[in-house]
Specification:
The structure holds two protein chains of two kinds. Chain A is about 25% helix and about 25% strand. Chain A is of the alpha+beta class. In chain A, strands 1, 2, 3, 5 and 8 form a five-stranded mixed beta sheet that branches. Chain A has a five-stranded mixed beta sheet with strand order 4-10-9-6-7, with no helix packed on it. In chain A, β2 (about 60-65) and β3 (about 70) form a beta hairpin. In chain A, α2 (about 160-175) crosses α4. The model of chain A is unreliable at about 155-160 (pLDDT under 50). Mean pLDDT of chain B is about 95; it is low at about 1-5. Chain B has helices at about 15-45, 60-90, 100-120, 140-170, 175-205, 215-245, 245-250, 255-270, 285-320, 345-365, 370-375, 380-405, 415-440, 465-495, 525-545; strands at about 10, 55, 60, 255, 505, 510-515. The longest helix of chain B is centred in the middle third of the chain and has 35 residues, at about 285-320. The N and C termini of chain B lie far apart (about 70 Å). In chain B, α1 (about 15-45) packs parallel to α3 (about 100-120), α2 (about 60-90) packs antiparallel against α5 and α5 packs parallel to α8 (about 255-270). Chain B is mainly alpha-helical. In chain B, the strands form three sheets. A two-stranded antiparallel sheet of chain B has the order 1-5. A two-stranded antiparallel ribbon of chain B has the order 2-3. Classes of the chains: A alpha+beta, B mainly alpha. Chains A and B meet through α1 and β7 of A and α6, α8, α9 and α11 of B.
Chain lengths: ~260, ~575
């Protein structure tokens, strides 16, 4: 039956030629269009704080930190035509970073820095999505890159007590409250903090309580005491120093 | 126009082996109900129909962990092992080592239950890929190790059985089914060594608090050394069914015995040295090594193409014997809805889905093209067209075959049984279409989108993913309906009345071309090739992971952004 082997050998040969051609086309695309995969960087040490550095009119370097459950910086504005060098570090667990609509799709792996270069030609708001599971609030982890012809938007202080508010927000971030609780009115793994003070809260057992100052204090120090309906008891009790706790509560009262 | 003769061959087997196989099918089948329900819930969350962290007492990522672990690890491995028992017993005609088979079954069951407890209590919501530094309860990792060791024992127990057969049949080629089963478990053995190293030396001591940190890039490389041969471990039992059963069910012969042997041996060599194609977008691995793994990945597509053409030729042979004519006219003569040959629909539908699963696999593997789809919903779409396509359908059909014949029962609701694979195919093609479209538009996989991206009340709501969500959830619903029907058929068969003497019955295809090619008759050169290629493909990547001395990561619970306190 050796005659049939001839046919099968031809089929295997054809498959091999197909594979070789495909690999050659891919190699060519890497060389011609410079669309390559991230490689091993050994000269960049992992960092823990995000930064935007402008190197020229259309040249930026962004050091992104991916951590539970946000990107830092979460929001940047650049002009169309800008080329951005992206460095990515993960100080806690593994994350993913995809800038939707670009070829930037990077894994953020603890201990190692990842890198990609991207040029933004079209104006628009580019969504950054964490696309690797990183814990219960993974679905909240996103950011945005505004590519806009206007000058980068200046964030003017809108409140009289801007300095105290900044301090309050800093404390919320330091104690990782904002990992689960937003200040913009949207619920995450935990309820939002916006407008919380003075509101009526329905608990898991159906009872209604008013979120007064004492309620805020108790919910921070021993969160398991009152669980709001539709949320669970996964918040750990915190040991915030009393002076900072007082500052946080004052800030929450202003957060309307 | 169908032949009245049932194309099955009978073999009486020992009651002990019967019990092992029946338990090894039924136990994971009960767990599969939970795996299917949690799968269905995924599409409801993703479509924004469920907008919550938990539903029915199961947290989203806990359900996702259960779905992946039960469906892709527990159900598949149990089936591969007991189907391996059946094939070894059937094709060698020799009794198996029942003591070893029992030990294997008990270890696998104990391992499954150990892993199940922390998953059910929510202490192992790390998904079935368990990437550190997210940490599960140590019992989860230990259970996985016990489970894997159990599956090894089954494999080792077949080697003396084959050797005894070979002594009696020195002039015969290894039966194709036996070669396929050995290929399955050689691939599994190669795959599970790195993951056993990851679990035993990195994750278990770390989760117990004996070591403070874990080297994440090293753990990931070990995991993907396991992760890709794992998919061929899933696929190979399906290939055994395709080569040894499908041609007979189609009424013909296997077009080429050589093609089958070549496919099995080639997969032993090329299924493992390609794991870095799962790590294309990661730091810490040079892009040259990524390219080399890409090239080997392309080579592993060859046996799948050979299989596709060989099986099409085998089915054509059967169809022409039944009067099929013309270039395409013979397609009409295949037993798509023949109740006597109900197993045909399970294998045929799986092959159809695999055309798309295979093509999208080549896309994923294509180096820089992966940047567009990596970790998007495109990936689960591809994954379901492979593992939940040819693999899952063949395993469902195989389970039903083993249970009905070994219990001497008729397949219940046979018309429904024949239709299940086609309904499933409709479901999975619809589901994947949604996820493919979403994926190229950036929709992430493994994400509780109901809380944010699919929730119009969230500032993160993405209206551009709406089409993908609707189509995906319609497909998921059809898949769920198909599985409800399958469970009905399966459990009605299991609990039905005995109508004949229990025996192992399988369709057995004879070769049309029984080529005598020396190169595919000895395993050893191929095993040596596999080891050599692994050394070539992995030495340098491992050296760099060690040399660069990455700082270790402490343990994190999925529920808190603070590292877990020292124990």
């Amino acid at each position: 039956m050796t005659s049939q082997i001839g046919v099968e050998k031809k089929i295997i040969a054809a498959a091999t030629v197909f594979v070789l051609t495909l690999s050659a086309v891919i190699a060519l695309s890497v060389k011609l269009y410079s669309i390559d995969l991230p490689t091993c960087l050994t000269d960049v040490k992992p960092f823990t704080e995000g930064a935007v550095i402008q190197h020229g009119p259309n040249r930026y370097e962004v050091q992104y930190v991916a951590k539970m459950w946000k990107f830092e910086p979460a929001e940047i504005s650049i002009t169309p035509g800008s080329t951005v060098d992206i460095y990515l570090a993960a100080p806690d667990v593994t994350h993913g970073m995809q800038i939707v609509g670009t070829n930037v799709n990077l894994m953020a792996v603890p201990g190692v820095v990842n890198y990609a270069r991207v040029k933004f030609t079209k104006p628009g708001d580019y969504l950054i999505v964490c696309n690797e599971y990183c814990g219960i609030a993974h679905q909240n982890m996103a950011g945005v890159i505004h590519v806009t012809g206007d000058a980068p938007p200046v964030t003017a202080p809108t409140k009289v007590d801007a300095a105290a508010d900044a301090r309050g927000m800093e404390l919320l971030e330091t104690h990782l409250c904002t990992a689960c609780h937003s200040v913009d009115g949207s619920d995450g793994p935990g309820p939002t903090l916006k407008g919380l003070h003075g509101a009526q809260r329905e608990l898991g057992d159906g009872s209604i309580v008013t979120a007064d100052e004492e309620y805020l204090r108790e919910s921070i120090v021993s969160p398991e005491a009152k669980i709001v309906k539709n949320f669970d008891d996964s918040m750990p009790p915190s040991e915030i120093p009393p002076d900072e706790l007082a500052e946080i509560i004052e800030y929450l009262k202003r957060l309307k | 126009m169908q032949s009245a003769v049932i194309p099955y061959t009978r073999l009486e087997v020992e009651p002990g082996l019967r019990r092992i196989i029946l338990f090894g099918i039924s136990f994971p089948m009960v767990l599969l109900i939970l795996g299917i329900v949690t799968g269905f819930l995924q599409v409801l969350y993703r479509a924004g129909i469920i907008r919550a962290q938990s539903f029915l007492g199961i947290e989203y990522y806990q359900g996702l962990t259960l779905h992946g672990t039960i469906n892709a690890i527990v159900f598949t491995t149990f089936f591969a092992v007991v189907f391996g028992h059946a094939v070894m017993r059937f094709h060698t005609g020799r009794p198996l080592l029942l003591g070893a088979a029992w030990s294997s079954l008990i270890l696998m069951t104990v391992g499954t239950l150990m892993a199940a407890v922390p998953m059910l209590t929510g202490d192992a919501s790390v998904l079935y890929t368990f990437y550190p530094p997210l940490k599960a309860h140590p019992v989860f990792y230990i259970g996985l190790v016990v489970f894997v060791v159990g599956s090894w024992i089954a494999f080792f127990s077949w080697i003396p059985v084959y050797k005894a057969w070979k002594r009696d049949h020195p002039e015969h080629k290894m039966p194709l089914g036996v070669l396929g089963t050995f290929a399955t478990f050689i691939v599994w053995f190669i795959a599970t060594i790195p993951v056993a190293i990851e679990l035993i030396f990195l994750l278990i001591p770390w989760s117990l608090g004996w070591t403070q940190t874990v080297n994440v890039p090293l753990a990931r490389m070990l995991f993907w050394f396991f992760g890709h041969p794992l998919v061929y471990f899933w696929l190979l039992p399906a290939y055994v069914m395709y080569y040894t059963m499908l041609p007979k069910l189609a009424g013909g012969k296997l077009y080429s015995d050589f093609a089958g042997r070549f496919t099995f041996l080639w997969l032993i060599v090329y299924s493992a040295p390609i794991g870095i194609h799962h790590q294309y977008t990661e730091p810490g691995i040079s892009s040259s090594w990524k390219f080399i793994h890409m090239f080997f990945t392309m080579l592993v597509a060859i046996p799948s193409l050979v299989t596709a053409f060989t099986l099409a030729a085998s089915m054509e042979h059967g169809a022409r014997l039944k009067g099929g004519t013309g270039l395409f006219g013979w397609w009409k003569k295949l037993p798509y809805f023949d109740g006597e040959r109900w197993l045909f629909s399970y294998l045929f539908a799986g092959l159809f889905i695999f055309i798309f699963g295979g093509i999208t696999g080549i896309i994923n593997a294509s180096y820089n093209l992966n940047l567009v789809v990596h970790n998007t919903s495109w990936l689960p779409a591809h994954f379901h067209q492979t593992v939940a396509g040819p693999v899952f359908l063949a395993f469902l059909g195989g389970s039903l075959l083993l249970v009905s014949t070994l219990m001497g029962k008729n397949v219940a609701f046979r018309k429904v049984a024949v239709w299940v694979p086609y309904i499933w195919t409709l479901g999975i093609m619809t589901f994947s279409t949604g996820l493919f479209v979403g994926g190229v538009n950036g929709e992430p996989r493994r994400t509780n989108m109901g809380l944010t991206y699919s929730n119009p009340e969230s500032p993160l709501y993405q209206s551009s993913w709406e089409f993908a969500r609707i189509v995906g959830s319609i497909g998921g619903t059809i898949m769920f309906i198909a599985m409800v029907l399958f469970f009905l058929v399966f459990f009605a068969t299991l609990l039905g009345k005995r109508v004949s003497e229990p025996a192992l019955e399988m369709p057995v295809s004879e070769p049309y071309h029984d080529e005598d090619v020396r190169g595919v008759q000895r395993l050893t050169p191929w095993l040596a090739g596999a080891v050599l290629l692994l050394i070539l493909a992995y030495t340098m990547p491992f050296v760099t992971v060690f040399r660069d001395g990455y700082e270790g990561a402490p343990a994190y619970s999925p529920a808190s952004p603070l590292p877990q306190a020292k124990q």
